[in-house]
Design brief:
Layout (H helix, E strand, L loop, with lengths): L10 H22 L3 E5 L11 E5 L47 H8 L7
Antiparallel strand pairs: 1-2
Length: about 120
């Protein structure tokens, strides 16, 4: 979580600053290459008039997103996450040397596996 604050004199200045934060964060998440979604968030204990949260799909995990009635994502709607078939578990963890491998794809190739299994 990251909070941001401004020292604007009025709501107009606050809204302009907030819009700049949205543009900046959208650009940051675009650069990650992730499939991401900006959704309305809860302002929590600190209060306020509005908040957004950024979410990204992950293969392992939940396959459905839910929201309160009357709310909706503020950007793209997330598609369902496909199920991942995993191989049988090993009896014990194995140490594997991965020198020079800096991505999940490179490790998967070296192990003869698929990236979603790593």
């Amino acid at each position: 979580m990251k909070d941001a604050y401004t020292f604007d004199r009025d709501a107009e200045g606050l809204n302009a600053a907030y819009d700049k934060h949205i543009v900046a964060y959208d650009r940051i998440f675009d650069r990650t290459g992730l499939e991401w979604y900006r959704v309305e968030g809860d302002v929590g204990m600190m209060g306020g008039l509005g908040a957004h949260e950024y979410m990204a799909r992950a293969r392992p995990g939940r396959t459905r997103w839910r929201s309160r009635p009357g709310t909706r994502p503020t950007s793209r709607s997330p598609p369902p996450i496909p199920a991942v078939e995993l191989p049988p578990a090993l009896p014990a963890p194995e140490a594997v040397a991965t020198p020079g491998m800096t991505t999940v794809d490179s490790v998967a190739r070296e192990l003869g596996s698929r990236p979603e299994r790593c």
